[in-house]
Design goal:
This protein has about 80 residues and is α+β, with helices and mostly antiparallel strands. The chain has one domain (about 10-80). The chain contains three helices and five strands. The protein has helices at about 25, 45-55, 60-65; strands at about 10-15, 20, 40, 70-75, 75-80. It has a three-stranded antiparallel sheet with strand order 2-1-3, covered by helices on one side. A two-stranded antiparallel sheet has the order 4-5.
């Protein structure tokens, strides 16, 4: 079942690209931080990045990020080159 950006089920860490379940505390309030110290976001663009990562995309152009992703898992986030 597809998740729309109006009803996200996950959030993306803006630093390590770890994926966690969506919470208002993480997305809107910013009081929930990632274990790496980064902030979470669950906006529509971040939902697109999550979907792309899950499909195996790792190139920075398709992900819209500045780093080069060597490996990635939802639970551990990305290893950057």
């Amino acid at each position: 079942m597809a998740t729309s950006s109006k009803n996200p089920s996950e959030m993306l860490c803006q630093d390590c690209l770890r994926v966690v379940p969506f919470t208002m505390a993480g997305h809107i309030e910013g009081t929930e931080k990632c274990v790496c110290g980064g902030e979470f976001c669950g906006c529509g663009e971040c939902q697109s990045v999550i979907r792309a990562l899950k499909k195996g995309h790792r190139d920075k152009r398709s992900l819209g990020i500045s780093g080069v992703v060597v490996s990635w898992s939802p639970a551990e986030g990305a290893v950057f080159k």
